[in-house]
Write a structure and sequence with these properties.
binds uridine-diphosphate-N-acetylglucosamine, binds uridine-5'-diphosphate, 6-stranded parallel beta sheet, about 45% helix, about 375 residues, globular
Length: about 375
C-alpha cells in the first residue's frame, strides 16, 4: 500500500509552494496524494490551482467577508477534523505560517496523525511580527513530526528550539514552482498587464498586504510610493492589489489617481513570475517575493521592520527598508540614482533552493515510512 499523504492549504502563497510538491507526490511510486483546500482565500487560491491544473479532493470553502483569525481557526479545525475522521491519511502536510497551516496541524495532531511541516524553521523571534505568522509557524513546529526546512539557517532556528529529529534541509519549493510558470516569450493573460508598456522606462513591482502593516503603516508606504513616482518621471509602478478590503480601499484612495501607478487585480502566478523577470525593482512586504526576486536577480526593498528571510539580506540582494515614508524613499532613491548600488543588488542568487525541494521532501517521507 502506498503511503497516503494529505496536503492541506488555503491561501495563495501556500498553494504556490505546495502544488509543485503535490505534483511530485503524484509522480512518486510509493506515495498517494490528496489535496484539501480550506479556501481561507478563494479567488487568489483558485488562480493558482488553475495554473497548476490541480483539482482538490476536498474543499472546505471557508472564506467569509470579514473573517477573523479566530473564526478561520475554528472553522479549519472543525472542517478538517471531519475529513480526517472519514479519510484518515498516513501523513498530513501543511505549509509555512498561515492560520490554515496551524489549525490544520492542530486538527491532525488531535487525531494523532503525523504532520509534515513544509517551509519549517523561519523565525523573526518577534511573536507579534509578522502577526500572526510567527506564532503559527512556531506552534506548528511543536506539533509536527517531520520538518522540511528550506535553508541551513532554518535548520539552526529549529535546533535552537530543540527540534532536531526528522529535520531535513530541502530548499524552498517556491523555486520548484518556476519550472511550471516561467517561459521565454511569455504573453501575459491579464489584460491590465498587457495594457502597460514595460519598454517605456523603468518599472517597480509593488505588493503590500501584511496584517501588521494595515492602517498607519500602509498609508506611510503609499505616501512613499507616491513620492517615488513623482520624483522619477521615467518610472512606472505596478501594484497588483490584494483582495483584502483593508488594502484595496487605502490603495485606491492614495494611489488610484496617479497616471504612472497601475493598480491592477491580483494576477495569477504565471503572470506574476514572468512579470518579475521583466521589471527593475521590487517593493514588498510579501514573504514569497523575497525568495523569488533574488532568484531572478531583481533587487528587493522589504516594507517591514524585520524579515524571517535573512539569507538574501546577507547576500546583498534584499534590503529591509522599514515602514517609514522617509526611509522607504531614501532606500529607493539610492537604487534609482546610483547605478553601482543598483548593480550590486541585482545579482541572480539562489539561497532558497535549486528547484528540487519537492523531490527531497518525497524521499524523506518515503524514508520515514519505510523505516517504520
Ligand atoms: C493571509 C495569511 C498571510 C499570507 C496572506 C497571503 C494568516 C494569518 N495570514 O493573510 O500569511 O501572507 O494570507 O495573501 O493566515 N480575500 C478575498 N479573496 C481572496 C483572498 C482574500 O476576498 O481570494 C479578502 C477577504 O475579504 C479576506 C481578506 O481578503 O477576509 C483577508 O484574507 P486573509 O486570509 O484573512 O488574509 P491575512 O490573514 O491577512
Ligand atoms: N503573487 C501572485 N499574484 C499577485 C501577487 C503575488 O501570484 O498578484 C505571488 C507571488 O509571486 C508570491 C506569492 O504570490 O509567490 C506571495 O503571496 P502573498 O504576497 O499573498 O503572501 P506572502 O508571500 O506574503 O505570504
Amino acid at each position: 500500500m502506498p503511503v497516503s499523504v494529505m496536503s492541506v492549504f488555503g491561501t495563495r502563497p501556500e498553494a504556490i509552494k505546495m502544488l509543485p510538491l503535490a505534483k511530485r507526490i503524484a509522480a512518486t511510486r510509493g506515495l498517494a496524494g490528496k489535496i484539501v483546500l480550506t479556501a481561507q482565500h478563494r479567488e487568489m487560491l483558485d488562480q493558482v490551482m488553475a495554473v497548476f491544473g490541480a483539482a482538490a479532493d476536498y474543499d472546505l470553502n471557508l472564506m467569509r467577508p470579514g473573517q477573523t483569525l479566530s473564526s478561520i481557526t475554528a472553522d479549519v479545525i472543525t472542517g478538517f477534523t471531519e475529513i480526517l475522521t472519514r479519510d484518515r491519511p498516513d501523513l498530513v502536510l501543511v505549509h509555512g505560517d498561515t492560520t490554515t497551516s496551524f489549525a490544520a496541524a492542530l486538527a491532525a495532531f488531535y487525531q494523532q496523525i503525523p504532520v509534515g511541516h513544509v517551509e519549517a524553521g523561519l523565525r523573526t523571534h518577534n511573536l507579534y511580527s509578522p502577526f500572526s505568522e510567527e506564532a503559527n509557524r512556531s506552534l506548528t513546529a511543536r506539533l509536527a513530526t517531520l520538518h522540511f526546512a528550506p535553508t541551513a539557517r532554518s535548520v539552526q532556528n529549529l535546533a535552537r528550539e530543540n527540534v532536531t529529529a526528522h529535520v531535513h534541509q530541502t530548499g524552498n519549493t517556491v523555486i520548484d514552482a518556476f519550472a511550471t510558470t516561467m517561459r521565454e516569450g511569455y504573453r501575459f493573460k491579464s489584460g491590465q498587464l498587457r495594457g502597460i508598456d514595460l519598454s517605456a522606462g523603468r518599472t517597480i513591482l509593488l505588493t503590500a498586504h501584511r496584517r501588521e502593516n494595515l492602517g498607519k503603516h500602509l498609508r506611510q508606504i503609499f505616501r512613499a510610493v507616491l513620492e517615488i513616482a513623482n520624483r522619477f518621471p521615467d518610472i512606472q509602478i505596478i501594484y497588483p492589489v490584494h483582495k483584502n478590503p483593508a488594502v484595496m480601499e487605502p490603495a485606491r484612495e492614495l494611489l488610484g489617481a496617479h497616471p504612472r501607478i497601475h493598480l491592477i487585480d491580483p494576477v495569477d502566478v504565471e503572470d506574476l513570475h514572468n512579470l518579475l523577470g521583466r521589471i527593475d525593482l521590487v517593493l514588498t512586504d510579501s514573504g514569497g517575493l523575497q525568495e523569488e526576486a533574488p532568484a531572478l536577480g531583481k533587487p528587493v526593498l522589504v516594507l517591514r521592520t524585520e524579515t524571517e528571510r535573512p539569507e538574501a539580506v546577507e547576500a546583498g540582494v534584499v534590503r529591509v527598508a522599514g515602514v517609514d515614508t522617509a526611509d522607504i524613499i531614501k532606500a529607493a532613491h539610492l537604487l534609482l540614482t546610483d547605478n553601482a548600488a543598483y548593480l550590486q543588488m541585482s545579482r541572480a542568487l539562489n539561497p532558497y533552493g535549486d528547484g528540487h525541494a519537492s523531490e527531497r521532501i518525497c524521499n524523506a517521507i518515503l524514508e520515514f515510512f519505510n523505516a517504520r
